[in-house]
Amino acid sequence: MSENETKISGKELHKSKIRERYKGSKTELLEVIPGKKTAGFYDNIARRVAVYVRVSTDNMQQTSSYELQKNYYEEKVRTNPQWTLVGIYADEGISGTSLRRRDAFNKMIEDCEAGKIDMILTKSVSRFARNIVDCISIVRRLTALKSPVAVMFETENIFTLNDNTDMSLSFTATMAQEESHIKSSIMNASIEMRFGRGIVLTPVLLGYDRSEDGKLTVNEKETRTVRLIFFMYLYGYSCNEISDALTKLGRQTKKGNTTWNPGSVLQILRNERYCGEVLTRKTYTPNYLDHKSKKNRGERSQHRWKGEHEPIISKDDFIAVQHLINNAKYGNKGFLPELKVIPKGALKGFISINPRWAGFKADDYISVAKYVCGNETTHDDTGGEDKKSDFDYSGFEIAREQFFSISNKLYITFSIKSIRFSIACIKKLPNTQYIELLIHPLKKLFIVRSTDEKNKNAVKWLFLNGKGKYIPRPVSGAAYLKTIYRLLGWDEFYKYRVRGIRRQNGDESLLIFDLNEPEMYLSKDKNLNDTCGLIPLAATGKSIIAFPSAWAHNFGSNYCRRSQTDELQKLKNETDWNFKQETTSFSDYFDLNVTNRDEAERSIQTIIKDMNMEGSNDE
User: Fold this and answer.
1) Which of 48-52, 163-167, 492-496 has the highest mean pLDDT?
2) Which DSSP helix (H) or strand (E) runs through 306?
C-alpha cells in the first residue's frame, strides 16, 4: 500500500470514530435538570415596579402629557395584583439626550442597584433616553445586576430580559437619537432665520417691560437702578461695592429681590440691550447630546440689531464699561485711562505705559506717536559725516556692546509676563522707589525715569533683601507686555535683552534703551536649525543667547548715523533738558464721548437722592 493510500485510510477511520461518538447514548441513561425560566413581562409573578416619566420642556402642553403619563401608569400598576408600585420617577422639562440634570432618572438607577426595584415601566425608548450610548449601557448595567432589573418599553413592546431584544433596542435607540439630531438641526435653522429677520429673543430685563408684540419698552422707575450701576462702575466702584450699595438702598431686581450680588451686577453691565442693541447667539451648543454651551468666538454667525428699542445708557459709556471690565483682572481702578504722551522737547513722542491697563493696542501707540511727531518718526539713516569733527569718521562703526561683557552694564530683560532690570540700573537711579516706563513706538526706544507713587502709571521696581539692600524686583507686565511684543514684532515664546545708557543733567537722570537690536534667549532644548535668521552667541544657564545673522557682517552701527541720532542730539542742548516733563492725555484714543468723572459723580448723587425720595413717598 502506497503512502497516500495509508493517509486516506487513516482519515476515514478517524471520521468513522467521530460519527460513532455523535450517535449519542441511550436516553434511559439521561436525567435532564431544567434551569430556571427567565421571567417574561406577561408572567404572573410578584414584581416591585418603578415608573419613569419624562417630558423635555416645561410648557403647558407638555405638562398635560406629563400628568397623563403618571396617571396612566399608576392605574396600570394598581390593576395588576402581583405588582407593587415603588414610585413614580419623573423628570419635567429635561432633555433625554444626556443623563446630566436628570435627577429622578439617576435616583431610580441607584434604587435598582440597591435592590429596591425589579422592573421599570416607561412609555418608549425616547422617554428613557435619546442617547444610544446611555440607553444601551444603562440597560446592560441593569441586566448584569445580581438580581437583574428589567425595563419594559411599552410603545415598542421591548422587554429587556428577553434574549432577542438587543437588535431591536439598538435600532430603536438609534432612531430616537437621530430624531433628536434632526430636531436640533431644524431648531438651529429656525433660530438663524428668525435672527436674520430681526425676530430676536426679548427676555425679562431690569429697566424694561415687554409690549404685546414682544418689544422692549422703558420702565422709568427701574432705569434709575440701571443708570446707577453703570455710572458707579464708570466712576471706579467694583461690582461688589455696587451690589452692597443697591442692597442698602433697597433696590429691587426684576424678580423683586432686594438682596444683590456681584454676579447680577456684572450681568447687567455686560448686557448690550441697555445701549439699544441686541447681539444674537452669544453662546452656542456644539453637541446636541450633552447640551453644554460655549461662548461664541466666531464659530457661529451672529447678528447685531441696532435701534430695536430705546437705550438706557449711551453706546460710548457701554463700550467704556466693557473695556474696564475686561481689564479688571490687572488691578486698574478708576475712570477710563487715556494714552499719555510727551508733546514736545527732547522726549517728544514718548508714551507713558499704563502698567494696569490692557485696553491699548499697538496701533493706538503708533497713531498717537505719529500725531505728535508728524514727520519726525525715524532715526537719521543718511550715514552722513559729523561736520563738527576735523576727522572723517565716515565708514567707522561703533562696536556693539552685546559683543562684550555685561558685568555692571545697564540692561533690561523682557518676557511676556514681566520686565527684569540689572542691578546697574538701580544704581544709576539712586533713591528711586518708583519709576515710570515710556516707549517711543516709532523709534523703538524705551525710557525709565524716576517718579512718585502718586503717578497713576508708577511701578515699584525695588525691594529690600535680607541684608537691608535694595535689589531689583520683577515688574509685572501681564497687562501691557503682549502689546509691546506685538509693537516690536517679538515672539511671545522668547525672552529679549536690551542694553541701555544713562543721560544726566544735575539731579535729573533717565535710562534709555534701544529696542532695535535686542539679544534673544533661546532654550537649550530648541533645535538651532529652526532659528531662522539667528546665530547662537553664548550659553547662560538654561538658555542660549542669540543675535541676528546680519550682525555677522559688521561690528556695529555707522558712527555718523549713531552720533547724530535725533534724541541724542537734542539731549546735548541744555534748553531741552527737561526729563521730568509731564505727559499730556491724548483724548482721541478711544474716540468715545464717555461720561466724564465729574458728570458721573453728579449723576450718582442725583439718582441716589431720587431713590431716597421715592422710598419716602412709598412709605
Assistant:
1) 48-52
2) strand 304-306
Q: How far apart are CA 121 and CA 142, in angstroms?
A: 13
pLDDT of amino acid 594? 82
- 558 and 536 inside one domain: yes
Measured CA to CA, the distance from residue 127 to residue 123 in angstroms comes to 6
Any idea which residue has 461518538 for its cell? 21
**Statement to judge: residues 553 and 580 lie in one domain:** yes
- Which candidate, 133, 125, 65, 124, places its Cα nearest to that of 99? 133
pTM, to two decimals? 0.56
Angle at 168 between CA 165 and CA 172, to 5 degrees: 130
3-state SS class at 42: coil
Which H or E run contains 540? strand 534-540
CATH number for 249 = 3.90.1750.20
Residues 241 and 360 grouped into a single domain: no
- 3-state helix, strand, coil split of the chain in percent (to 5) is 35, 20, 40
- The model's pLDDT over 403-424, given as tens digits with 9 standing for 90+, comes to 555 567 888 999 999 999 998 9
Same domain, 326 and 345: no
Q: What is the pLDDT of residues 263-301, one digit of tens each?
A: 999 989 988 888 887 765 555 555 545 556 666 665 566
Q: Is 166 part of a structural domain of the chain? A: yes
C-alpha cell at 350: 514718548
Per the structure, the complete domain to which residue 302 belongs is given by 208-330
231 domain-assigned:
yes
CATH number at residue 144: 3.40.50.1390
d(CA 318, CA 333): 17
In this structure, the answer to whether residues 285 and 421 fall within a common structural domain is: no
In a domain, 618, yes or no: no
Same domain for 320 and 351, yes or no, is: no
Could you tell me the three cell numbers for 118?
425589579
**CB distance 550 to 449 below 8 Å:** no
Q: Most distant CA pair in the chain: distance in Å? A: 133
**Type of residue found at 586:** F
Task: Give the pLDDT confidence score for residue 380 in this predicted structure.
Answer: 47
581: Cβ contacts below 8 Å, ≥ 6 apart:
342, 344, 345, 347
Cell triple for residue 435?
A: 519709576
Distance CA 287, CA 293 (A): 8
Domain boundary among 163, 180, 197: 180
- Structural domain tally of the chain? 3
Give the containing element (helix H, strand E) for 47: strand 47-55
Report which of 439, 433, 469 is spatially closest to residue 451, judged by C-alpha positions. 433
Q: Is the separation of the CB atoms in 463 and 469 below 8 Å?
A: no
569 and 528 assigned to the same domain? yes
Whether the CB-CB separation of 478 and 488 falls below 8 Å is answered with no
Burial of 605 (0-12, 13-18, 19+ CB in 10 A): exposed
- Cell numbers 437619537 correspond to 177
Q: Is residue 92 part of a domain?
A: yes
Q: Tell me, yes or no, whether 456 and 547 share the same domain.
A: yes
Residues 6+ apart with CB under 8 A from 341: 349, 350, 351, 352, 368, 369, 372, 583, 584, 586
409-421 in b/e form (b: 16+ CB < 10 A) is ebbbbbbbeebbb
Backbone Cα Rg of the chain: 39
Q: Of 330, 353, 377, which closes a domain?
A: 330
CA–CA dist 544, 532 (Å, integer): 15
Query: Within 10 Å of residue 475's Cβ, how many Cβ atoms?
Result: 18
Query: Cβ(143)–Cβ(160) under 8 Å?
Result: yes
Residue from 503, 539, 518 nearest 419 by CA: 518
